[in-house]
Write a structure and sequence with these properties.
The complex is a heterodimer of chains A (368) and B (340). In chain A, helix 8 packs across helix 9. The N and C termini of chain A lie far apart (67 Å). Chain A is built from 15 helices and no strands. By secondary structure, chain A is an all-alpha fold. With 340 residues, chain B is an all-alpha fold. Helix content of chain B is 67%, strand content 1%. Chain B contains 14 helices and two strands, in the order H-H-H-H-E-E-H-H-H-H-H-H-H-H-H-H. Chain B has helices at 2-6, 26-55, 57-64, 67-70, 84-115, 118-133, 136-162, 191-214, 219-227, 232-243, 245-261, 264-269, 288-295, 301-331, and strands spanning 74-75, 80-81. Chain B has a two-stranded antiparallel sheet with strand order 1-2. In chain B, strand 1 (74-75) and strand 2 form a beta hairpin. In chain B, helix 3 (57-64) packs across helix 14. The chains are: A mainly alpha (368), B mainly alpha (340).
Chain lengths: 368, 340
C-alpha cells in the first residue's frame, strides 16, 4: 500500500506547482487595460470630430495648422476629461502630461523629418544628374538646365579646406589635450580656461578674425587656405576640449601600471594612454570635422567664390559646398536654387558619412 | 673582531627614504616641453583672437565715442555707426528662439528618456544627435523655402488677434490687420521667422544634453518612487526633473549661446533694418552675426574695427552664457559625466 501511495502523494504535491508556473510571470505594472485603450481611442476620435465640426463647419476659421493645433488641444482636454470619469486625479495628471510630452516630441520629430525630407526631395532633381558630380560650374550660366555643369569645384574645395583645417587643428588640439591631462600644472589650467572660453566663439568671428589678420594685414588674397585656417581656428577649441574629455576618462590605473613597469612618461602616453583613448579621440576629431564642413559663415568671409575647378588653396578663390549653397539660394534663379538643394543633399551625405564613421568608431572599443 | 672594527664602515640608514626627483629627463623632458609648446601656440592663437577682438574696441570708441553703444543706425556711407539696434536684435532673435526651443527640447528629451519604448530609444537618440550635427545652412534653406511662406500666416494671425499687445503688433502702412488681402511682405523676413528656424536648429543640441542627464537619473530613486505608488509623471516630477535641473539649464544655455552667434539662417532670412523696435513679427531686424556678414565686404579700416568691436560684444555675451552654463552644470548634482 505504502509503495503505491507514495507516488500519489508526490503527484499531488507536484501538480499545483506545475499549474502555478504560468501565473508566476510578473504582472505588467504600467500596462494599459482595455478600458484605457477605449479612453484613448474615444478621446482621439471625439476630438477629431468635434474639431472638424467646429473648426471647418461652424466657425469662420481656416488653415491646416490651426486645425491641428485646435485638434491637439481638444484631444488633451477630452482625454483628461474621459480619464477623470473613472480614474483618480493622479492618473489624470499622468495622462495629461503623457499626451503633452508625446505631442511635443512628435512635433519636433515631424519638423526635423520634414527638414530632411524637404531637402532631399528638392535636391533630388539636381543630385540625380550624373554630371552634377563630374562637372564644375565654369561656363555654366545660372539659368542653364540641370544637365549642364555641376559642383565638383565646390566638393573638391570643401575636401581640400577640410583637409588643411584638420591637418592644422588635429595635432594642435590633441597635443594641447595631452598637455592638459598628462602634464598638468598651473599653465595647463590657464590653457584649459582659455580653450573652454573659445568654444563660445561664434563661427563668423573666426572668419572675420582671419579676414582682418591674414587677408587685410598680411595681404593674402581670398583663397582656400584662408578659409581652411578659419575653419581650423573654429575646430581647434572643439577638438581640444573633446579630446581633453576623452583622455580624462582613461583609467589612472593603466598609467600607474605602465609607470611602475619602468616606462617613461612619454612611453606611457604613446603606448598606453593614446591607444586606450583612440576611438574616443577619433570620434571627437570626426565630429569636429562634421561641424567644420558645414560651417558657412567663415568660408563666406574668407574664401571667395569661384565657379571653376581649383585645387590650389594658395591661389585664386576656392568654392566650397556651404558657400555654393548660399550663392545658389540667394541668386533667385529657380534652376540655380535647385542646384543649391542638390549641393545641400551632397553636404548632408558628407556629414552623414562622417557621423556614421564616428558612431561606428565609438561603438568598437578599440584598445580596451 | 678588532680587525673589522678598524675598517671604515658606511652607515646606511634604511629608514630614510631615497631622494626622489620629479624632474623629468631625456625623452620625458622633450615630451613635456613639446606639448607645452603646442599648448602655448594654441593659447596664443585662441587667446589672441579674444585679445584682438577686445583691442578693436579702443579705436572704435576713440572715433565714434560711446555713442557707438547707443546709436541705433549703421550707416557706413555717412559714417554713423552704432550697435544698440544690433544688440537688441541679437537678443530678440535668441530670446524668441529660446522661448520656442526650450519647451520643445525638454519635452523631446523627456519623451526619449522616459516614454519611448526601448526599441525606439536608440534610433531616436541617433536621430537627435545627427540633427545636432546637420549644418546650419541646411536648416536655413529649409527655413527660407519651406517655413517662411507658411510662417507669414502665423505672424498675420498673431497680429490680427494679439496685435493690441505691442510685442505682436505689425505696422501695416495703408492697410489693417483685418483686411482680407494683407500685405504679406510686411510679415516676411522678420525676427520671428529667423528665430523659428534658429530654434529648430538648436532644439537637437539642447535636447541631446538634457537627454544625457535624464538617462543618468539614479535608478534607485526611480524605483523608490514607483514603489511608493508614483505614476510615470510622478517619477519625472520628483526624480528626473530635480536630478536633471543642471542639465536642463546647461543644455538651454548652450542652445542660447549657439542661437546668439547663428549667422547663416538670420543672414538668409531677415532683411537688415536698424530700428530700435521690439516688433518681432514685422519685417526686418539685424543681429551681430548678420551685420558682419552683410557689411564686412565694403568696410573701411575703421569700419572693420567697428565690426570687430560689435563681434567682441557678441563674443562677451556668448562667453557669459556659456560660462554660466558650465558653472550651473558643474555645481548641480547632475553634472557628473555630462559635457556640454
Amino acid at each position: 500500500m505504502t509503495t503505491i501511495a507514495q507516488p500519489q502523494v508526490v503527484d499531488v504535491i507536484a501538480a499545483p506547482i506545475v499549474a502555478v508556473r504560468p501565473e508566476a510571470e510578473p504582472r505588467k505594472v504600467n500596462a494599459f487595460t482595455g478600458d484605457d485603450w477605449w479612453c484613448l481611442a474615444g478621446a482621439f476620435l471625439g476630438s477629431l470630430a468635434t474639431t472638424w465640426l467646429l473648426y471647418e463647419q461652424v466657425l469662420p476659421t481656416r488653415g491646416k495648422l490651426g486645425f491641428w493645433v485646435c485638434w491637439y488641444l481638444a484631444f488633451i482636454a477630452m482625454y483628461a476629461g474621459v480619464t477623470a470619469l473613472s480614474q483618480p486625479r493622479i492618473v489624470v495628471k499622468d495622462r495629461f502630461w503623457s499626451s503633452v510630452v508625446a505631442g511635443g516630441a512628435g512635433f519636433v520629430f515631424l519638423a526635423l523629418g520634414y527638414a530632411l525630407a524637404f531637402t532631399f526631395v528638392h535636391g533630388w532633381a539636381a543630385a540625380s544628374h550624373g554630371n552634377f558630380y563630374t562637372h564644375d560650374a565654369a561656363g555654366t550660366r545660372p539659368t542653364a538646365p540641370l544637365s549642364q555643369g555641376g559642383i565638383t569645384h565646390a566638393l573638391v574645395g570643401s575636401c581640400i579646406e577640410l583637409g588643411i583645417a584638420t591637418v592644422i587643428s588635429l595635432p594642435l588640439g590633441v597635443g594641447t589635450a595631452v598637455y592638459m591631462v598628462e602634464v598638468g600644472g598651473r599653465f595647463a589650467k590657464v590653457v584649459r580656461t582659455v580653450v573652454e572660453a573659445m568654444t563660445a566663439l561664434p563661427d563668423i568671428l573666426a572668419g572675420l578674425f582671419i579676414f582682418a589678420v591674414l587677408i587685410l594685414a598680411f595681404g593674402f588674397q581670398k583663397e582656400g587656405f584662408c578659409a581652411a585656417v578659419a575653419l581650423a581656428v573654429m575646430m581647434l577649441p572643439i577638438i581640444a576640449r573633446s579630446a581633453d574629455v576623452a583622455l580624462r576618462v582613461v583609467p589612472g590605473g593603466l598609467r600607474e601600471a605602465s609607470l611602475a613597469l619602468g616606462a617613461s612618461q612619454w612611453r606611457t602616453v604613446w603606448s598606453v594612454v593614446l591607444p586606450t583613448a583612440k576611438s574616443a579621440l577619433a570620434t571627437s576629431v570626426i565630429l569636429g570635422m562634421a561641424r567644420a564642413v558645414g560651417e558657412t559663415a567663415p568660408v563666406l568671409i574668407t574664401s571667395g567664390a569661384s565657379t571653376f575647378f581649383n585645387t590650389n588653396p594658395f591661389n585664386n578663390p576656392m568654392n566650397s559646398l556651404p558657400l555654393y549653397i548660399i550663392t545658389a539660394v540667394r541668386s533667385g534663379e529657380p534652376v540655380f536654387i535647385q542646384r543649391g538643394f542638390g549641393a545641400a543633399v551632397v553636404l548632408l551625405a558628407f556629414v552623414l558619412i562622417l557621423f556614421t564613421t564616428a558612431r561606428l568608431l565609438s561603438r568598437t572599443k578599440v584598445g580596451r | 673582531v678588532t680587525a673589522q672594527a678598524d675598517t671604515p664602515v658606511r652607515v646606511v640608514d634604511y629608514d630614510k627614504p631615497r631622494a626622489i626627483s620629479s624632474k623629468s629627463t631625456g625623452v620625458d623632458l622633450a615630451f613635456r616641453l613639446s606639448t607645452r609648446g603646442i599648448s602655448a601656440v594654441v593659447l596664443g592663437v585662441t587667446g589672441g583672437i579674444g585679445v584682438f577682438l577686445g583691442y578693436q574696441v579702443f579705436p572704435t570708441i576713440r572715433h565714434y565715442g560711446f555713442a557707438f553703444f547707443t546709436q541705433h543706425q549703421w550707416n557706413p556711407e555717412q559714417n554713423i555707426l552704432g550697435i544698440s539696434s544690433v544688440i537688441l536684435g541679437t537678443i530678440e532673435v535668441a530670446a524668441i528662439a529660446l522661448i520656442i526651443s526650450f519647451p520643445l527640447a525638454l519635452l523631446t528629451a523627456l519623451f526619449i528618456a522616459e516614454y519611448a519604448p526601448p526599441w525606439l530609444r536608440g534610433p531616436l537618440v541617433t536621430l537627435v544627435d545627427l540633427m545636432a550635427a546637420v549644418p546650419s545652412i541646411v536648416y536655413a534653406i529649409w527655413g527660407v523655402f519651406a517655413i517662411e511662406p507658411h510662417a507669414i500666416f502665423v505672424a498675420h494671425w498673431f497680429n490680427q488677434y494679439l496685435g493690441w499687445f505691442p510685442f505682436f503688433h505689425v505696422r501695416l502702412p495703408g492697410s489693417s490687420a483685418d483686411a482680407a488681402v494683407f500685405p504679406q511682405h510686411q510679415y516676411a523676413a522678420s525676427a520671428f521667422i529667423a528665430a523659428l528656424i534658429v530654434s529648430m536648429m538648436v532644439i537637437p543640441m539642447g535636447c541631446a544634453v538634457m537627454r544625457g542627464v535624464f538617462a543618468q537619473a539614479p535608478i534607485g530613486e526611480r524605483e523608490a518612487a514607483y514603489a511608493l505608488g508614483a505614476t510615470r509623471w510622478g517619477v519625472i516630477r520628483t526624480v528626473v526633473l530635480p536630478f536633471g535641473r543642471g542639465g536642463i539649464i546647461g543644455g538651454t544655455m548652450l542652445a542660447l549661446g549657439r542661437a546668439l552667434g547663428e549667422t547663416v539662417a538670420v543672414y538668409l532670412i531677415v532683411s537688415p533694418v536698424f530700428d530700435l523696435k521690439l516688433r518681432p513679427l514685422e519685417i526686418g531686424t539685424i543681429t551681430t552675426a548678420s551685420l558682419i556678414a552683410n557689411f564686412f565686404g565694403d568696410a573701411s579700416k575703421l569700419q572693420l574695427s567697428a565690426l570687430l568691436a560689435a563681434g567682441f560684444v557678441l563674443f562677451v555675451m556668448t562667453l557669459i552664457v556659456n560660462t554660466l552654463a558650465a558653472i550651473i552644470v558643474n555645481r548641480s548634482r547632475s553634472g557628473v559625466g555630462v559635457e556640454i
